[in-house]
Structures are given as structure tokens and as C-alpha cells.
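[Discussion] Sanity-checking designs against the backbone

I'm trying to build intuition for which residues belong where. Below is a C-alpha cell string of 558 positions. I'd appreciate it if someone posts a full sequence so I can compare it with mine line by line.
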């Protein structure tokens, strides 16, 4: 319960809408029981040929129960799904917001496909929990209790048998089934996530896997996951079938007990003969409602595993928190400093050790060094995707931890080496940098990165689709388009992480010149493996062979 408490808190305000659904469902199920009971009495009574006026109340009741059953069932479906979808929406927003708070430092232990599965399929399991678990059990509890009271008014043995049968079907059978197949049900969500992860990795890495002849091993591993998932589903289905058989058996036993007890009561004169059908047939209607409880318990076991996975995300501590009283920043120009900073992505494993760095307004600085020396970690520190273990990072002398993160990221922009392009148009990808930008503004920024002539020559112009991850563009075009988006956001301080990666020397040199020219007056931190930067930058800082303190700026020399 402690792990599920954040989920309940996130969905709590919307769950009040479930009450009308429970009442409507109980009314629909009660109408079914009433229809069966009154119809049984009416048929039995009519066989004695009484005056028709003696049957009018029962006739009207049959009509009322028949009509209200369908209406109330519709109301239950409408209100129940409306409330469940509201809970679903709130919870999905809550989980997404948590992921946004955790990204990227707090998500190091998660796989992208697994997170997508948690945000989609695991959140959808909440809908099953509400509509297939909570509602059926609540309705069955209300209707079952009322039916036991109704039957008990005419035959206590039949009522006791009905109560025992309902308890067996609603509690004992699900408990036994959970003990027998609970592990299989609990493995369904993790195995489906594992299958999603494997499928995503196979599709994304297929060219490399084919090139190295490694696709067979991946397919075998994926097939093994599919087999294990199938086995879990088969075991779960087998136990569900057994539970359905037990429910049918219990229904028959309750009917026979009611028939025997009612016959004895009629023979003894304690029960009018026309009420015997009521005692015998009412359990049939009751078990029509209770028959779904074992399946509801199965859905609960499967959904509980999904809810635990969501609870794990919501319980993950946020490493980057906003200050309670953020400090206002001056308009600029801005100076950024790292002061004796030690930092790392994994607790206890530092990548940077006691680093000092100063970026003065308008600086062009290249940060170089071997892989793993912490170049990208510096970028993450500057946009506060990560906080230092020791030391501090400041903007205009103010510790970043005292600045609202969204305000900081209006000043310091980060263009990673794998900047994502969405499967939409060129214009839509650019407007991520500035919502509401006009087409003329988009053309201006495309001209700055030397893409305007190419875009103008396209049949659809700015409305051209770039494909998934920008696959319809060349490597240079993808990087230029991502830079245009960053320029459109107009960050005073711009971090470019490996902007020429995977490009040939001539293309890389041309692109680098265009990037720095397009940056204009902005402060630029260029993270790269290239060493032929020459006069393009003011200073080159080597993290692999860094001095105790480094400073960069237009006046720092170069």
C-alpha cells in the first residue's frame, strides 16, 4: 500500500465519479435479480389462474425491472468509464510530469522502451483496475448482500447456501487461483515490457545487427521472451478457465440446495408453493453478477504488477529540484562559472573532479578531451540536468540551485549530439524552439544555417515531413535544422555537443564555420573531439590535460 499511495493521491480527485457507476451497476444487477424473482413468482402464481387484477402489480414490476436493467447498465458503463478515463488522464499526466522532473539524471536506471511501456500500457492497466475489478466487486457485494436477505426471508438454508457460494466464488476461488497462478499474472507486465524493449532495440539496431551477423541471436532472445510470456498467459488462462468451472459448479449446488430446502418448506406448509420458484431461480441471477469475480481477481493480479511499476517511477527521488524562492536574474550579458566542481551521473562515481571553468559573455570556447572525460557532463551541469557533488555552478555569480530551472534554460541552451527531430514537418520541428514563430522568422533562421535554399526548393517547403528521427534528411541537414531550432529559441549561451560527429572533414569544417557564424553574439561552448579548430574559437580547453583552473572569453586570449 505504501508503494501504491502516490498513485491513489494522483488519481484521488477523479475517483469520486465512480460512486454513481457503482450505484447504477448495483441498480442494474438488482433489477436483474428482481426481474428473475418477480417473473418466477408471476409464472407460478399465474398457473393457479387467479383474477388478472391480482397479477397487475407483478406485471408492471416485470416491465419496470426489464426496462431499468438496460438503462441502468448503460448509465453504469457511461459513468464508470468516464470516471476511469478521468483517473487515467490524471495519472498519465502525473507520471509524465514525474518523468520530466526526473529527466535526465534520475532516469539513468531505466530503458527508453520500458519507460514508454510504463507510460502507455501500465497506465492503461488502471482502467482495467477500476472498470474490471473495483466496479464488479462493489456491485457484486451490494447485490449479493441484498439477494441473501431476500432469499433468507423465505428459506434460511437456501440463503446460507447462497451466501456460502458467493463467498466461495468472490473470495476463496480468487485466493486459491492467485496462489496457483499469481506469479504468472505478476510476470505478465514485466514480460510485456521486456518484449517491448527487445522489439524496439531490434528495430532500431537492425542495420548494425545485419551488418555484423548478430540478428539471429537477438531474434532468439526475443523469441525466448515471447515463449515465456506465452507460458505465463497460458497458465493464467488455464486457471481462469478452472475458476469459471468452479463458479458454474457452485451455482448449480446453490440451485439444488435451494430446490431441496424450498421443497421441504413447501411440504411443511412454511412456504407458499408459488414462492418456490423465487427461492430456486433467484441464485441464477445473483451468480450472473458474481460470475465475473474470479476474472476480476485475475485482472487485479495483472494490474497490480503494472501499478507497482508506476509506483516505482513515482517513488524515484528527484535529483534536480526547483528552489522554493527562486532568485531573479539580471538581463545580461551573462557569465557562467564552474567552481571546484566534482560531479557524476551515478552516486559514488565521479566523472569530473575539481573542475574550474569560466565562460565570459561572447566567448567561443572549445571543450575537448577523450571519451569519458566529462565533456557532456559539463554541458549537463550548465543546463542543470545534473547537480555537482561538490563545488557549485553559477550564472552571474548566482548558484544554479537558486534559479528556477525553466528560467535557467531560457538563458543556457543545449544542443546535444543526438538532438531529436520529430516525425512531423520542418516548420513544426522549428517551432519547438519558439511557439508561435511566423513563417518569415522560420525562413530567417533557416537562412542563418544555410538551409533556406534547400527548403525553398522542396515541393512542400516548410510543410515537408522530415521522417522518423529525421531519417529523410542527411546528417548535415539534421544538425543544421536542430541548430536552427536552438537559434530560434534565442539562447544567450549556447552549448553545441559534437555538432560535426560522423561527418567527413570537409563537411564538418563547413558546418562548424556555419554554426559559429550563425551563433552571432551568443556565448558558445563547443564540445568536440576535433583538434583542428584553429582560429574558429577563442580558446581550446582540454579536460584530459586541463590546468587547475581555466577561463575563457573574448579578452582571455586565444
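Best answer:
Here's mine. Compare freely.
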Amino acid at each position: 500500500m505504501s508503494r501504491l499511495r502516490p498513485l491513489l493521491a494522483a488519481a484521488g480527485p477523479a475517483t469520486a465519479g465512480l460512486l454513481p457507476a457503482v450505484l447504477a451497476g448495483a441498480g442494474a444487477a438488482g433489477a436483474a435479480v428482481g426481474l428473475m424473482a418477480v417473473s418466477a413468482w408471476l409464472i407460478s402464481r399465474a398457473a393457479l389462474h387467479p383474477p388478472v387484477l391480482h397479477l397487475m402489480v407483478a406485471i408492471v414490476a416485470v416491465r419496470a425491472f426489464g426496462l431499468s436493467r438496460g438503462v441502468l447498465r448503460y448509465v453504469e458503463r457511461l459513468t464508470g468509464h468516464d470516471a476511469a478515463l478521468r483517473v487515467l488522464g490524471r495519472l498519465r499526466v502525473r507520471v509524465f510530469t514525474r518523468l520530466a522532473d526526473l529527466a535526465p539524471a534520475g532516469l539513468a536506471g531505466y530503458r527508453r522502451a520500458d519507460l514508454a511501456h510504463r507510460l502507455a500500457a501500465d497506465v492503461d492497466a488502471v482502467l482495467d483496475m477500476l472498470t474490471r475489478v473495483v466496479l464488479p466487486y462493489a456491485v457484486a457485494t451490494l447485490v449479493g448482500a441484498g439477494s441473501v436477505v431476500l432469499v433468507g426471508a423465505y428459506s434460511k438454508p437456501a440463503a446460507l447456501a447462497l451466501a456460502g457460494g458467493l463467498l466461495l466464488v468472490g473470495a476463496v476461488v480468487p485466493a486459491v487461483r492467485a496462489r496457483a497462478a499469481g506469479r504468472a499474472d505478476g510476470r505478465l507486465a514485466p514480460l510485456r515490457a521486456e518484449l517491448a524493449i527487445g522489439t524496439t532495440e531490434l528495430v532500431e539496431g537492425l542495420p548494425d545487427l545485419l551488418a555484423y551477423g548478430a540478428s539471429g541471436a537477438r531474434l532468439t532472445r526475443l523469441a525466448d521472451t515471447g515463449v515465456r510470456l506465452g507460458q505465463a498467459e497460458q497458465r493464467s488462462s488455464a486457471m481462469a478457465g478452472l475458476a469459471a468451472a468452479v463458479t458454474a459448479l457452485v451455482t448449480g449446488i446453490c440451485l439444488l440446495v435451494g430446490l431441496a430446502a424450498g421443497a421441504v418448506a413447501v411440504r411443511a406448509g412454511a412456504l407458499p408453493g408459488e414462492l418456490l420458484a423465487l427461492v430456486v431461480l433467484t441464485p441464477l441471477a445473483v451468480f450472473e453478477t458474481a460470475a465475473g469475480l474470479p476474472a476480476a481477481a485475475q485482472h487485479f493480479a495483472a494490474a497490480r504488477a503494472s501499478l507497482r511499476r508506476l509506483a516505482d517511477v513515482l517513488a524515484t527521488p528527484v535529483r534536480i529540484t526547483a528552489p522554493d524562492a527562486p532568485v531573479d536574474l539580471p538581463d545580461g550579458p551573462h557569465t557562467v562559472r564552474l567552481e571546484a566542481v566534482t560531479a557524476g551521473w551515478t552516486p559514488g562515481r565521479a566523472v569530473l573532479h575539481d573542475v574550474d571553468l569560466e565562460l565570459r559573455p561572447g566567448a567561443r570556447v572549445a571543450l575537448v578531451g577523450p571519451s569519458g572525460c566529462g565533456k557532456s557532463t559539463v554541458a549537463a551541469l550548465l543546463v542543470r540536468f545534473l547537480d555537482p557533488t561538490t563545488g557549485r555552478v553559477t550564472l552571474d555569480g548566482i548558484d544554479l540551485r537558486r534559479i528556477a530551472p525553466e528560467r535557467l534554460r531560457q538563458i543556457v541552451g543545449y544542443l546535444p549530439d543526438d538532438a531529436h527531430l520529430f516525425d512531423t514537418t520542418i516548420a513544426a520541428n522549428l517551432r519547438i524552439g519558439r511557439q508561435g514563430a511566423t513563417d518569415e522568422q522560420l525562413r530567417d533562421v533557416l537562412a542563418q544555417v544555410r538551409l533556406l535554399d534547400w527548403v525553398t526548393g522542396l515541393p512542400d517547403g516548410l510543410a515537408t515531413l522530415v521522417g522518423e528521427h529525421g531519417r529523410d534528411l542527411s546528417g548535415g541537414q539534421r544538425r543544421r535544422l536542430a541548430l536552427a531550432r536552438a537559434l530560434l529559441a534565442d539562447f544567450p549561451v549556447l552549448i553545441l555537443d559534437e555538432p560535426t560527429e560522423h561527418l567527413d572533414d570537409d563537411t564538418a569544417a563547413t558546418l562548424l564555420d556555419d554554426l559559429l557564424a550563425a551563433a552571432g553574439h551568443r556565448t558558445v561552448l563547443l564540445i568536440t573531439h576535433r583538434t583542428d579548430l584553429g582560429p574558429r574559437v577563442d580558446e581550446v580547453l582540454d579536460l584530459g590535460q586541463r590546468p587547475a583552473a581555466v577561463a575563457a572569453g573574448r579578452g582571455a586570449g586565444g
